[in-house]
């Protein structure tokens, strides 16, 4: 009963470096999400995937790309990291509309 | 433009008393509302939800009230316990352009023993 698993848990990047945050869910959910949490800002949606094969921009997509590799996995890529991307990133998944989303434990990313 | 607003960043209550957390929304396409609880260094966990066809939903000590005409919902915790101390996020989703799950900025609840 792993639920939503994110890797890594912590990461420090230098400005300009790239990296991919991995997310996998074992609940057979159709929808997956990437959020970032910043102080006083709540959880802001970066990208989401309503179903396998589709991705859509959320509120703050600039500087990020995503891949819905299969039904289980949804990755978030930073091509050229910037200090403004220092944040805690959360992946989530849900079944169809009007059900709750389940969250991973988060990835704390620092860009120096 | 925040579509889901939690105007109180923090709230302190005494153990055993009622905690009331408030949330306002602007998008009339939202038809499903959720509350999440978050402890430090953990992911948010689902607490309770309500569909727009209802105006109240209860689960143990937690009750969510929805006032559609005012576009307002609230979470009541009775009685409050020290373990309830956490950040509480309100979230909303709907159809069409509102199908993504949108969160408020959160309210830090502290229950004092």
Strand fraction of chain A equals over 45%
Helicity level of chain B, as a percent range? Answer: under 10%
Please state the oligomeric state of the protein chains shown: heterodimer
What do the pLDDT scores of chain A average to? 93
- What is the overall shape of chain B? globular
Class from helix and strand fractions of chain B: mainly beta
CA radius of gyration of chain B is 13 Å
Descriptive report:
With 112 residues, chain A is mainly β. Chain A has no helices and eleven strands. Helices cover 0% and strands 53% of the residues of chain A. By secondary structure, chain B is mainly β. In chain B, the strands form two sheets. In chain B, strands 2, 4, 5, 9, 10 and 11 form a six-stranded mixed beta sheet that branches. In chain B, 36% of the residues are buried. At the A-B interface, strand 5, strand 9 and strand 10 of A face strand 4, strand 5, strand 9 and strand 10 of B.
Structure summary:
Chain A has strands at 4-7, 10-13, 19-25, 31-38, 42-49, 56-57, 64-68, 74-78, 87-94, 101-103, 107-111. In chain A, 0% of the residues lie in helices and 53% in strands. Chain A has 112 residues and is mainly β.
Task: Give short descriptive properties of this protein.
heterodimer, A: mainly beta, 4-stranded antiparallel sheet, globular, B: mainly beta, 6-stranded mixed sheet, 5-stranded antiparallel sheet, 11 strands
Summarize the topology.
The complex is a heterodimer of chains A (112) and B (113).
Chain A: E1 4-7, E2 10-13, E3 19-25, E4 31-38, E5 42-49, E6 56-57, E7 64-68, E8 74-78, E9 87-94, E10 101-103, E11 107-111
Parallel strand pairs in A: 2-11
Antiparallel strand pairs in A: 1-3, 3-8, 4-5, 4-9, 5-6, 7-8, 9-10, 9-11
Chain B: E1 4-5, E2 10-14, E3 19-25, E4 30-38, E5 45-51, E6 56-59, E7 62-67, E8 72-77, E9 86-94, E10 102-103, E11 107-112
